[in-house]
Structure formats: C-alpha cells, structure tokens
C-alpha cells in the first residue's frame, strides 16, 4: 500500500517524529536535574525540610522522564544505520567519535551516580548523596554539549577534510570540529531553554495546587522559585536568541531569509513581517502585517541596511519557507509570553500579592507546557531551515538516505507511531498523575519494592527479616535518618 510513497519523505517523517518525541525528555531532564541539585543544596544549607520534600517529590518525576529519554534516544542510532546509512558512512569519521565521547563521558557519569541519587538517600552520607546529584546534573549538561556539538557541526561544518571517497575526515585539530562557529551560542540557547521549560512546568504544577489550596507551603515554594527563574532567565534567553539569530545570518543566511519571509531582497532596509501566509509559488508573503525596516534594524542594527532575499539563491536550495516561517514565530511568541508572565509575577511579588492573584495561577497553568512547544518549534526552525542539506552546503539530504523501498520505511514508521504513543503515552500519563498529587511534608522519594531486589539464589528476606533496612523502617525512623 506504500509503494507509491517517496522513501526519502517517509524516512524524514520518521526521523522528525522520533527526534521530536526524544527531544521533549532531555529538554526536561537537563533542567530538572539542575533543579534537584539546587533543592538538595538548599536543604543541606538551611536544614529546612520543605526543600527535601520538594526534592523527593520531583525526583520521582525525574526518574521516569530520564528513563524515557534514554529509551527514545536509542532509536536514533537505529535510524542512522538503516534509513540514513549513506550519511553515517560519509560523516562517520567526524560524527562517530563525538557521539562516542558523549557515551564515554556523560552517559557513564550519569549511569554511575544515578542509582546513588535515586536510591541512596538513606544509605550514604548527605555530602556524598549531594555529590551524586550534582554529578547527574553535570552529566546531563555534558551530554547536551556533545550532542549539540554534533548538530552544530552539521549546521556550520568546520575543521574537516574531504577524503577521496567523499568522506568527511577530521582535520589537524578536533577543537575546530567541536567548537564550530555555531556551537557555543547554540549550546547556551538550548540549555537555557531547558531551564525555562522546567521552570514553567514547576510553576504550572505549583499554580495547580495553589488553585486548590492557596495555603500549601510546598506549592508556594515551588511557584515562587519557578517565577524567579522565569523573571531572570526569560530576558536572558531572548538576548541569547537574538545573538543566535545574528550568528545564523552570518553562517546560514538562507535560513534567516526563510525565518523572516524575505522572498525578495531589500536594498534600502527590510521590513519585519509579523504575520502572513508564505506563498512559495508566487515568491511573496500574502496578507503580510509588517513593520517597515524593522528587520534590518534587528539583524543589522541599521534600519537602512540592505538584506538579501531568497531571490539571490537557486530555487533548489531554498528551505521550506512556510514551516520555518511559522515555527520561528511560535518560538519567539512563546518566548515573549514567558517574559510577560515573569514580569507579571515580579509585579505581584513586589506588591506582596504573589499568592493572592488566582488569575496569575491560571496563566501559569496555561503556560506550563509552553517550554516544550517552544523547544520543538526551535528545533524545527533549526533543522528544516537547514534543508535541502543534512551537512550544510556540502551533503544534500536526498544524497544521505539509504537505498530503501518505501514500504520498508513505512513499516518501521507505523511501528514507531504505535509503540511511541502506547509506551510514552503511558509514561506521560503517569508523570501527570504524580504531578496531580500535591507535595506534602514527609514526602516519599523513589523506593524499591517492599521485599527488596530479586535474588537468583536462596530466599528473599521480607520486611520482618531485614529490620535494619531504611526502606522497611517505619516512617518515623526514616524521618530521623533524613535529619528531621
């Protein structure tokens, strides 16, 4: 039934579907790991049990999100070897080592300390447990560093040599590959987006519970911390986004042309098109609402500066303008909405009414998933804006795909759709179920089963046979161990 479909289009749809699912979880776990480290650090510094309660509340959610991120990421390697074997062959000498460094540094670091972080609160010292939490948070950041270095190299390739067989080979210095022109600002922009994503999820959960019980101290603390993050980091993210845009204009000008909807060149200053309907056939934006010369002012800091349009490049090198145009506006619009909510919360805080404005809680609840939408929109802008190339200006996407028939790609695509919505849908439902419960004093963290791990020999001692195990102690004993 799929024999008349285009195998390349199906392979691109499959990769877009799986990477979009995957990207949601790392963008959440990167920020949440750092938030957990902050909570535990505040508990150790102040001795206030509210921080420990919030730590145990969110660590359960982190464990599930982290696991789903790892599982969904495995599929990416599968597709490199099946649907994109030519890409793997040509870029393997550069991309392969960078991906291996991610496993050898970040993944091993996370795996080494994750068990201590999740299950070791009552089994190791407070300092060692806090160190494990910090190592997991550091591991997520190192992982993001390597992955974004790979992606940035595909956007702005540098430090390579072309071999006789067409392979991309490392040049004299790996530093030129790792620190390619777009990598530093892309890393800062993406990691900051992860922090904002978590801030608005935490703020939304806090707002949900404040709407139900305005006096809940744990919900108040969550909401206050999240709104501080939004207030401080949202303007920083807008600044980083502007800097990233200038970097993109320098190294990937046709991507910016598509983002701005500039089909035609503007020698005397380009307008900023706020909204409209890109018409690629007629090479114009229909029903455009624009601000004269504002685009030149933003991109060149001169309202009369000339800006080239898509009319300066061949038609077969144009990215899909409609997708890039709208995904960029969704990302920017959400960014300014985040800034607005942060300033609104600051106003309420200054007036001493942070916990007295239900309308603010409702706005925060609506904005809770906004970070996920923004990071996906930004990812679409980045990846679709690079088309028709997979390695910018050097390797076309059409030349990187495996020689597969459409039915073969379609079969795996359908399988991914069914499995992803079933498995990850259940995981997301359970995360929402955990968030629905209000945090409270004496919060439980991640626990193993009541009978402990399964043993391969002998019998498994029950709770009564293992009275010294903190996992089977009465609640008052566990609180004593926690220092409360």
Automatic annotation (TrEMBL):
Q: How does it sit in the membrane?
A: Multi-pass membrane protein
Protein's recorded name: Cytochrome ubiquinol oxidase subunit I
Q: What is its main location?
A: membrane
Organism phylogeny? Bacteria, Pseudomonadati, Pseudomonadota, Alphaproteobacteria, Sphingomonadales
Q: Where is the composition biased (Basic and acidic residues)?
A: 472-484
Q: Report the family membership.
A: Belongs to the cytochrome ubiquinol oxidase subunit 1 family.
**Disordered: region residues:** 445-484
InterPro entries registered for this protein in UniProt: Cyt-d_ubiquinol_oxidase_su_1
The record's section on Pfam families has:
Cyt_bd_oxida_I
Look up the signal peptide feature and give its range: none
Task: Say which species the protein is native to.
Answer: Qipengyuania pacifica
